[in-house]
Amino acid sequence: MDEVGIEARRQMLIRFGAVTAAAFALPWSLRAQVGHPSPQPMASPNAPMNQNVPGGLDGAGLAHQPAPGTISPLMWAEIKSDSDKLLQMATDFKAKVDQTNLTATLSLPLIKEAHQIEKMAKEIQQRMRA
User: Fold this and answer.
1) Looking at the 3D structure of the chain, how many domains does it have?
2) Which of 5, 11, 95, 124 is the most buried (most CB within 10 A)?
3) Is 19 among the domain residues?
């Protein structure tokens, strides 16, 4: 082969390599120029709401709630009166059941009264949980 052909081929390969390198390097250089924002760290959910206050001294966003297990006096009075009503309803129900004939089927009003007693007990239970 002649040297001019080899030199031309060498020059062509050098140019091809330079163009290929530039093509691969161009996206990286454009990305740096565009200035994509770098990822920022997420704030901790336990961080203080006010950055001027040391952590833990501002409540860290926690709502001020009464201690668990405490109940307001008004709610306690309602529970107590409902419990008295429940006791009276249950006592009346027991008296009616005692008067019923064992061989007869239970009457519909008696079953409805049992349902009302159960409903009242569940309401009291829900108030005590709240």
Assistant:
1) 2
2) 124
3) yes
